[in-house]
Amino acid sequence: MEQARVVIIGGGATGIGILRDLSMRGIDALLVEKRDLMNGASSRYHGLLHSGGRYAVKDKEAARECIVENEILRKIGKSCVESCGGMFTRLNIDDEDYEQQWLKGCKDSGIETTPITLEEAFRLEPLLSKKNVVSAYLVPDAAIDGFRMAWQVIDSAKRYGGRLKTYTETIGISTSNGKLKSVKVRDAFTGEEYEIECEIAVNAAGGWAAKVAELAGLEIGVQPDKGTLIAFNQRIVNRVVNRLHKSSDGDIFVPHGSITILGTSSMSVPDPEDTSTSREEVENLLKIGEQTFENLRDYRILRTFAGSRPLYIPPGGVKGRGASRGFAIVDHANDGLNGLFTIVGGKFTTYRLMAEKICDQICAKLGNKISCRTAEEPLVPEVDAADKERAGKFFPSYGVELAAARLGQEKFKKVLAKLESDAESRELVCECENVTRAEVEEICKEPTSFIVNDVRRRTRIGMGTCQGNFCALRSAAIFSKFGATKNSADSLSRMREFVQGRWKGIRPVLFGRALRETEMTRAIYELSLNVVGGVPRE
Question: What is the pTM of this model?
Answer without folding.
Answer: 0.94
